[in-house]
Records
---
Amino acid sequence: MSGFRAALARATARSRAELQAAGRRRGQPSDLGRRLSHSGAAPARPSFGIAFDIDGVILRGRSPIGGSPQAIRRLYSEDGTLKIPFLFLTNGGGVPEHKRALELSELLGVNISPAQVVHGHSPYRELVNRFENDLIIAVGKGEPATVMIDYGFRKVLSIDEYSSYFKDIDPLAPFKKWIVQQADNKNMKSEKVHPSYDVFEERVKGVFVLSDPVDWGRDLQVLCDILSTGGLPGSGRGDQPPLYFASDDLEYQAAFPSERLGMGAFRIALESIFNQVNDHQLKYISYGKPNPFVFKNAANILEKLAICMHPSSLPTKKVEGHQFSTIYMIGDNPKVDINGALKAGPPWSPVLTRTGVFRGKDNDPQYPADLVVDTVEDAINCILEKECIQ
Ligand code: G3P
Ligand code: MG
């Protein structure tokens, strides 16, 4: 135990030095130095916020990792109120944010609000007006159509439902004995008989990939059909409808010991097949980290959260127009989480854990974080010590 404490003390001292060095690199030595030596009480409105990646930092599959429940609980007061503004900034998704908030609350033992959950597909909300009365297809694991309907889209079909209306669209379907029966199987069967929309006449006007596709083979086929024909499988060639991906992660950390192929891998597969069977290139837009706009949006949410927590007090420091002097991005994927925070620039400060995609001994050479720690719990210990929070 004492050996562990000593190791943690050494890690903390090293981390402090790394954070100081990072501050100097960013030209804020006095600010960081002052905060590191400060020993007073916590400010009324915290001058910092935290964004947590989920897969590979907080969870692996559905299991908490790296002391995440203890780490997150330190951000709440004894009475359960939020002490430090934080949110989850994940490229994952497939369920509505309020449902994910509930699931995380149960797994971590704290009260997380839907506003604190930002999925890769959360920005799709902004596209509702553009597709208001159009038939759109939602792709991915979980409940992609429910998410889109929740956002306000009106004519949404999941790719499962859509494909089910087209006889023989997937020639391999009869061989797929592994297909898991959905809980709402009965409803789906009756919908198959009475499609909600005239899918044989009405063209698909947009395709939204929300989460990792489940049946890659079928989805590659059906998406190639939709995208090559102007939104009507089985008809002639037509203009490609807009295609959106919630993220572009090539790999991510799930429950299996080594990384799993993510949405970016699916995008590569779709793009290369589409480009082979068409005489023009696939067009698409990807959201999610490392897109700087995702970090800007997260910073706005954190600021609103801080104002809600302390409506009458002003921020302790305002640095170059930011409400926060630092927003820590705690992630496991250098290419995605650390790269994104570096691209976003101040007040973002990336922190890399070794519980997911990254397992290196030192820092990532291509996308170096301000701090590298073993777990999210170590990250929170270092951050709270640096920010003088008990
Ligand atoms: O499918 C989830 C994955 O792409 C990444 O999730 O939480 O590591 O951003 P996260
Ligand atoms: Mg991750």
---
Amino acid sequence: MSVAEPLTLAVLVSGNGSNLQAIIDRIEAGEIHARIACVISNVHGVFALERARRHGIPTVIHANGAFATRREYDNALVEVLRTHRVELVVLAGFMRILSDVMIGAFPGAVINIHPALLPAFPGLHAQKQALEYGVKFSGCTVHFVDNGTDTGPIILQAVVPVMQDDSEESLSRRILQEEHRIFPESIRLFAEGKLSFHGRQVRISS
Ligand code: GAR
């Protein structure tokens, strides 16, 4: 019996990389049939890069300032991804908006984690937005990336309570615990071919 090749991922990061770590751990545990071909950061010196190195994963710095326009940045990024034969692009705390160049190059194959229950609180500082609004529940969303900001088809969501005395940090920590569960799980579903589109609805087969 022939065994299918693992799905080739690139994980794009800008910071701590705790979601990257959760993905690495599930792959190393043999729970996701995938391999991370490279970790790409738009910021130098972030801890996510150190996490990648500790696991022998190649790293690439694709710095914000090195390109004149968003499209030039994305064209060069597509080239890096193609060189590594990437099949799924995973935005794990990548704090940069992608243009139609990237989305067009990887249709249905770019996913993002957002620390709120979309469509509520898209964009930056989602946890702060939730606290200021006064919602009683928030959470996180894994979604396919389209040309909008945090508007693409939703794969998985998880809900957490918001406490009266929550700070941005305490709420972020509670949400992150759920991120670390649903993001790797979404990648597993993708790798196993279990996700399909019906309009903008993502259906999950068992
Ligand atoms: C996560 O909370 C993720 O949802 C958020 O950045 C954090 C990255 O943490 N992403 C966004 O806000 C994207 N708009 P990590 O570097 O520890 O994975």
